[in-house]
């Protein structure tokens, strides 16, 4: 327990008692006296909180702050109780039936209160309530509520507590941490003794299993990863609640009051106990900063507070890493340590009570052999044969994970604990050991899922020690709203996705890569490239170029041939090229394909690059990959492959066009379309339309166009909510004209919709078939019948000229979520004539905001530019929009002054008026 220094500076109990006695002596009506007493308590609480805050601002120690806050509340509760008992409801000599004990439970019972934490009180009674109890309890509660505290309470006898604890895990857990606060101590001792003998005895197995199940359910609800970039400090994986769970298990099993007692008893190692205390203090400190900064009981470490907390905790920019990134990296490392402690405690709990292992089939599998590859199998899990095995044979640390992967057996937490304590044995000699490197490359390229082994190696600290360059990105956050995971977690997931592609598990969503991955000759190079593609993030310079240098150095060490090393390095250097071209360039433009072919050069590299690109994008986050991106990558791959394998691009492209049309024809015939109707529809689409959309999209378009043409509708707007991708797809079918794209974008901005992707299609009949993917301001689908109907009406009003966009946008522009304003994205406008022979290509980069796409495209319309195709990409807070444009005469823009005018006008359009006003 942390000793609290200068307690009277926080709350001077004697002085407050004297002040209360003075108020009690005044001849005042009861209501007036209560108001004066309430004012006094408010002043006491405010002064105490102010002193605790001043101390925290000075030392920044959350462990001290939660204890000092608890001390303040303890004293305040006692003072309120005593004033009620002595002055408001004096009894003289109380009977035994009027005895009462105040008990702190839950986190308050542990003696831990963050600045805005709730207070949980148990009013413990002898056996039944009497009027005196009701009077005192009511007075105490209303006084505490009125001073501004959030108090949860219960009023029970010991018998009621025991009965409820048997049936309710939450109550059982709260009572496990009960602490006598004030009043009759005999009542408290009786309850505690009964709790130990009637509840804790012989129920440890049930309690442990229930708490672990509760933890797993909480993790699942919170995203089941400790590497999400906006973690919940209390409830998230690796957060305070996980430490609480460990403490509850230890207290229930071993009757301890502090984790350090486990180390003193030899149950866990002293480093493990120190790790618990270190993690707890860090998380307490972060939570205190959160509460003080937001002035509320906030536990989410969102982007808009991370930078300020990093500054307050003195994380400065260093090298290529920002202070906020260093802070979050430390947070994730602490969360990883909590995971290590969790595994160790679970093993102790299992052994203590001789529980059967979860994987009984493995237990039976190994029942006839006590050892494998130099390890023993205990309870269906792999363990060391000797306590000093890793000290005498460091390669065994790598072999442990290799054996576990090959035989699909869990690793015993005790073995992982020994690994953690032997990490210093992973030195330059081990890194150069041929056997160790052979084992590692076999794991990395295993036909069994390498994600499993690499995640275990990473969490045990082995991966970062064995591959020091990887160690630099462990817990490295990518400070934006696009990436969901830390660099190391993203990398491990990318390898798992690559394995899933190879195993045929993603055929439906990634058909092209699922097919070509079985045609690659350089499989080892592909998996090594997936492992290394982001390994240089966080350094000064282009991470792709720097990562390629790492690959050239590491390849020979891992046993790759010169050819494999060179291929792996090339893949790392170019791992963003295919997605950049597919999503930001017009793949209908022959020059786009010829430039891409010149970069890739060989069909083998093309296949490898496609597989790596798909795995990389899909590992960014659950909603990033979609059928549209799959189609663009597939079409780029096919067109490049056609050129490489004989220059028959036009013929091969024509074959795919015919195949797409044949598939659609068959479906339309099945739906009862006539031959003339089908021919008319097939004649509307240009070749590129048939190859960049899938069959399901073609069917939706065919139905929509047919219905619109049947009634000669001037405008058709059709929404489709895609909950899986958290977007709403809006198809607009209307007559094409200059400025159409800008008008639709403006209508959506007026309606509060945020465009995250868009596709422009002009049909042969002069009609535009444009598709927009939109979200609401909270990042969810733009949904709801009334909202969608209003959006359709707004688009119609804008296109008919009955709604003035400039006027509406000036008054209706909403705001992005506040945390988006944390990120600064320098505006950039690039005007380039090299990527296309027939169009000028404009790329604009900036921070996303409502109405931005309208501002950009409206500026282009005012400049007299015709937009032939648009490629809209949103990466969290950053937008990267590419437009293929011509002038009013249908030519490229090549005059220098005009090009500079375009650039200057677009930079002005990218300016954020709200940000500019905020900076003034």
Structure characteristics:
single chain; 920 residues; alpha+beta; Beta Polymerase, domain 2; Four Helix Bundle (Hemerythrin (Met), subunit A); 5 domains; four-stranded mixed sheet; 43 helices; disordered C terminus
Strands ordered across the widest β-sheet: 3-2-1-4
What is the tally of beta strands?
A: 16
Task: Please compute the radius of gyration using only Cα atoms.
Answer: 33 Å
Structural classification: alpha+beta
Which bin fits the share of residues in helices? Answer: 55-70%
Largest sheet: 4 strands, mixed
Number of helices: 43
Q: Outline, from the CA principal axes?
A: globular
Low-confidence stretches: 355-369, 814-818, 915-920
How many domains? The number is 5
User: What percent strand?
Assistant: 5-15%
Quaternary form: single chain
Mean pLDDT: 88
* Amino- and carboxy-terminal Cα gap: 49 Å
What does this structure look like?
The protein has 920 residues and is of the alpha+beta class. The chain has five domains: 7-200, Beta Polymerase, domain 2 (2-Layer Sandwich); 202-318 and 330-355, Nucleotidyltransferases  domain 2 (Four Helix Bundle (Hemerythrin (Met), subunit A), Up-down Bundle); 356-427 and 443-466, no CATH class; 469-644, no CATH class; 717-919, no CATH class. Helices cover 58% and strands 11% of the residues. It is built from 43 helices and 16 strands. The strands form four sheets. The protein has a four-stranded mixed β-sheet, with helices on both faces. It has a four-stranded mixed β-sheet with strand order 5-6-7-8. Strand 15 (866-875) and strand 16 (878-886) form a beta hairpin. Helix 18 (395-407) packs antiparallel against helix 22 (450-460). The longest helix is centred in the N-terminal third of the chain and has 30 residues, at 30-59. It starts with 6 loop residues before the first helix and ends with a helix.
């Amino acid at each position: 327990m942390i000793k609290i220094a200068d307690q009277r500076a926080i709350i001077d109990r004697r002085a407050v008692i004297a002040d209360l006695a003075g108020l009690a002596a005044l001849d005042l009506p009861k209501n007036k006296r209560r108001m004066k007493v309430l004012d006094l308590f408010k002043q006491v609480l405010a002064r105490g909180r102010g002193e605790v805050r001043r101390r925290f601002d000075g030392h920044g120690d959350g462990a001290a702050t939660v204890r000092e806050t608890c001390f303040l509340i303890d004293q305040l509760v006692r003072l309120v109780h005593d004033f009620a008992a002595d002055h408001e409801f004096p009894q003289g000599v109380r009977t035994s039936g009027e005895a009462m004990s105040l008990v702190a439970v839950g986190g308050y019972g542990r003696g831990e209160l963050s600045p805005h934490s709730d207070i949980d009180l148990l009013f413990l009674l002898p056996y039944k309530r009497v009027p005196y109890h009701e009077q005192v309890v009511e007075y105490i509660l209303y006084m505490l509520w009125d001073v501004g505290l959030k108090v949860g309470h219960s009023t029970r006898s010991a018998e009621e507590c025991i009965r409820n604890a048997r049936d309710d895990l939450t109550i059982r857990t709260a009572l496990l941490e009960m602490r006598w606060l004030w009043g009759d101590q005999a009542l408290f001792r009786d309850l505690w003794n009964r709790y130990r003998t009637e509840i804790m005895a012989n129920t440890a197995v049930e309690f442990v299993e229930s708490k672990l199940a509760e933890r797993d359910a909480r993790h699942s609800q919170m995203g089941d990863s400790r590497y999400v970039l906006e973690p919940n400090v209390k409830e998230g994986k690796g957060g305070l609640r996980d430490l609480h769970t460990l403490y509850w298990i230890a207290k229930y099993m071993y009757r301890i009051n502090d984790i350090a007692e486990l180390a003193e008893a030899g149950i866990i190692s002293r480093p493990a106990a120190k790790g618990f205390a270190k993690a707890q203090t860090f998380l307490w400190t972060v939570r205190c900063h959160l509460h003080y900064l937001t002035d509320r009981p906030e536990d989410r470490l969102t982007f808009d507070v991370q930078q300020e907390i990093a500054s307050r905790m003195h994380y400065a920019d260093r090298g290529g890493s920002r202070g906020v990134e260093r802070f979050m990296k430390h947070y994730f490392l602490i969360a990883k340590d909590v995971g290590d402690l969790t595994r160790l405690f679970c093993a102790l709990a299992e052994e203590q009570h001789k529980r059967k292992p979860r994987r009984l089939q493995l237990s039976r599998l190994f029942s006839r052999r006590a050892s494998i590859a130099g390890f023993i199998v205990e309870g269906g899990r792999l363990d060391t044969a000797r306590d000093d095995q890793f000290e005498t044979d460091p390669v065994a640390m790598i072999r442990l994970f290799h054996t576990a992967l090959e035989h699909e057996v869990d690793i015993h937490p005790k073995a992982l604990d020994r690994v953690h304590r032997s990490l210093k044995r992973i030195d330059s000699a081990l890194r150069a050991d041929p056997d160790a490197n052979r084992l590692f490359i076999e794991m990395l390229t295993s036909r069994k899922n390498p994600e499993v082994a690499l995640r275990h190696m990473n969490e045990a600290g082995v991966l970062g020690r064995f591959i020091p360059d990887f160690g630099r990105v462990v817990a490295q956050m990518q400070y934006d709203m696009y990436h969901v995971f830390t660099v190391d977690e993203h990398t491990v997931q990318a390898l798992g996705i690559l394995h899933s592609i190879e195993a045929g598990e993603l055929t439906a969503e990634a058909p092209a890569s699922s097919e070509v991955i079985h045609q690659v000759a350089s499989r080892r190079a592909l998996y090594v490239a997936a492992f290394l593609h982001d390994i240089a993030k966080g350094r000064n310079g282009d991470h792709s170029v720097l990562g390629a240098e790492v690959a050239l150095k590491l390849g020979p060490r891992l046993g790759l041939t010169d050819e494999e090393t060179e291929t792996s390095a090339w893949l790392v250097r170019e791992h963003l090229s295919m997605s950049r071209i597919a999503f930001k360039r017009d793949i209908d433009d022959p020059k786009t394909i010829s430039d891409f072919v010149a970069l890739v050069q060989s069909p083998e590299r093309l296949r490898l690059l496609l597989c790596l690109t798909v795995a990389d994008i899909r590992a960014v986050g659950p909603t990033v990959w979609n059928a549209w991106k799959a189609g663009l990558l597939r079409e780029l791959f096919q067109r490049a492959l056609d050129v490489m394998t004989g220059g028959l691009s036009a013929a091969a492209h024509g074959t795919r066009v015919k195949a797409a049309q044949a598939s659609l024809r068959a479906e339309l015939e099945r739906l009862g379309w006539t031959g003339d109707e089908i021919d008319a529809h097939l004649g509307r689409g240009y070749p590129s339309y048939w190859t960049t959309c899938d069959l399901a999209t073609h069917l939706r378009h065919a139905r929509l166009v047919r219905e619109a043409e049947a009634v000669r509708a001037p405008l058709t707007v059709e929404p489709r909510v895609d909950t899986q991708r958290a977007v709403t797809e809006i198809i607009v079918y209307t007559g094409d004209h200059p400025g159409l794209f800008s008008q639709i974008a403006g209508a959506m901005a007026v309606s509060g919709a945020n465009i995250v992707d868009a596709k422009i299609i002009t049909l042969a009949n002069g009609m535009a078939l444009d598709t927009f993917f939109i979200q609401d301001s909270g990042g969810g689908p733009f949904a709801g019948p009334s909202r969608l109907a209003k959006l359709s009406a707004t688009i119609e009003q804008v296109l008919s000229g009955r709604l003035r966009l400039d006027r509406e946008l000036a008054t209706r522009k909403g705001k992005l979520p506040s945390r988006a304003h944390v990120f600064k994205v320098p505006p950039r406008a690039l005007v380039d004539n090299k990527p296309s022979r027939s169009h000028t290509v404009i790329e604009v980069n900036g921070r996303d905001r409502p109405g931005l796409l309208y501002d950009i495209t409206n500026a282009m319309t005012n400049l007299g530019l015709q937009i032939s195709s648009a490629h809209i990409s949103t990466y969290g807070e950053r937008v990267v929009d590419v437009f293929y444009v011509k002038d009013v005469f249908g030519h490229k823009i090549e005059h220098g002054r005009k090009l500079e005018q375009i650039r200057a006008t677009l930079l002005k359009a990218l300016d954020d008026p709200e940000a500019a006003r905020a900076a003034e």
